[in-house]
Design a protein that fits this description.
single chain, about 300 residues, alpha+beta, four-stranded antiparallel beta sheet
Amino acid sequence: MFSSRSGIVFNNIIQSLDLPKNEKYIKAKATEISSQMDAKIGSAPGFKDWTICKPIYAVHIACEILRIPFDRKRLLKLANTTEQNYHSSLSYIRKILEIPSLISFDSLAAKFGCPKIIPYVERMFEIFKEEWVKDLSAANIREIDWNDDIYKVAVFGCCCKVLGAQSRISQQLINSSDISISRPAFQNMTRLIEKYCKSYINELKSQIKNEGLMTFMISPVRGNRYINEVNEGSIKKRTRQDDDDDDDGRDQKEESSFGDRAGSGTMKIVNFKETPLYNDYIVWRSKILEKIEEMDSELG
């Protein structure tokens, strides 16, 4: 049964997040999550400070389900536990309560504007699973939850790094408002993936160098600006544009650096929004948004 004391605790946590407009919805969902935790997890004697942290975890998961942006660092501070313990506990709770993850390779690609990378990410993930389990016992394999966000985020980060994304992509993944993964967990999993996918990573690097494998990334930079990168063989073009630039007439700055192929020494300015690659991205993005709306309606 939901006590008035629990209601006060939820109120205080939500107020600390400065989310007054959404307090009613967050509290209702957090109450539901908390009841499920009581029924399926109980007192959780193996968890440190469970009594204190449980309502914080409930609010955290409630905000994620409702897709309400919130300050994760503030909740971590309230929990007064390590970042590793906090995210490990959240992962365990989601697994026990069978809460579906909202993170997928599609959603990550949509977030960072790189639909072309999906086939490479999926292939890297399959290779990692095939190779890693060879070194694990049957008991350890049974414990693996391949739907855990850590695998998807770490594989995505590794693949972006190989295919020409800027180094700050990892920082953006860790600090993202909709990804709950600790920095140590991300770094450890990244090293593991790089170890077991070494051959595939070298293969991709070879294709980029020798076969002109094209990669495409849009990575957030300072303020409301983006860098659109198109790498094709030895040609690299970088276009900067405003985040809210929906006007084709708005000025753009484009920097082009040419390798051996640019013997003429001329520079051709290309409007990125007029390229087939951008059109592909728009079509793909529309499909992803439709899927997200369908998921929202199902969860609602």
